[in-house]
Amino acid sequence: MSDYPFDVNKYHEGIELFNDVEFFEAHDVWEELWQEYHGEDRKFFQGLIQVAVCLHHFGNGNIRGAKKLFLSSTAYLEPFKPIHLGCNTEKLIRELTACCQEILDSTEEFPKIDIIPDLIPEIHLEGFQ
Questions:
Q1: Helix (H, G, I), strand (E, B), or coil: what is residue 10?
Q2: What is the DSSP letter of 62?
Q3: Judging by beta carbons within 10 Å of its beta carbon (0-12, 13-18, 19+), is residue 18 exposed, middle or buried?
Q4: What is the pLDDT of residues 63-109, one digit of tens each?
Q5: Is the pLDDT of residue 1 over 50?
Q6: Residue 3: its pLDDT value, please?
Q7: What DSSP state is assigned to residue 125?
Q8: Which backbone phi and psi does 12 adopt, to 5 degrees?
Q9: Which pLDDT does position 2 carry in this prediction?
Q10: CA of 129: how far to CAs of 4, 74, 119, in Å?
Q11: How far apart are CA 112 and CA 129, in angstroms?
Q12: Alpha carbons 115 and 32: distance in angstroms, whole number
């Protein structure tokens, strides 16, 4: 029995998929978790979902969508800094910002920007089972 009021296995499964660059699949798993859970961590899960969708859009060349999701995901995660449920949200936001910096700096309406694989963030839990 979990000490948490949400499905910890889905949380972990989403992180695994995210780290395997399976962003759409991570989004799906976390969205299930988000739909089932109505507690105080709901906005945190929504932030993770939007990070995954941001990177999914970026990888598929939907730069406008990626920028929009970057802004909303970081706004959702900001209140959960520096670490929440073992996720170093401060590091995740910093690495996501580095990954998306070219998108954020672009003034073009439809820029052609490729994601740099080495800059894609990963989530490694700290002290959370």
A1: helix
A2: -
A3: buried
A4: 999 999 999 999 999 999 999 999 999 999 999 999 999 999 999 88
A5: no
A6: 78
A7: -
A8: -65, -40
A9: 62
A10: 10, 24, 27
A11: 40
A12: 27
As a whole number of angstroms, the distance between CA 34 and CA 10 comes to: 10
Residues 64-83, buried b or exposed e (16+ Cβ, 10 A)? eebbebbebbbebbeebeeb
Task: Report helix, strand or coil for 119.
Answer: helix
pLDDT per position as a tens digit, 10-24: 999 999 999 999 999
Interacting residues of 8 by C-beta distance below 8 A, sequence separation 6+: 2, 129
The predicted pLDDT at position 113 comes to 96
Looking at 1-129, list the stretches that DSSP marks H as alpha helix, in order from N- to C-terminal side.
8-19, 23-36, 42-59, 63-77, 89-105
d(CA 93, CA 116): 16
Which residues have CB under 8 Å from 51's CB, separation 6+? 18, 69, 73, 77, 92, 96, 121
What single letter denotes the amino acid at residue 74?
A: T
Q: Domains in the chain and their CATH numbers? A: 8-119 (1.10.3450.10)
Q: Which two tokens stand for residue 1?
A: 């029995």
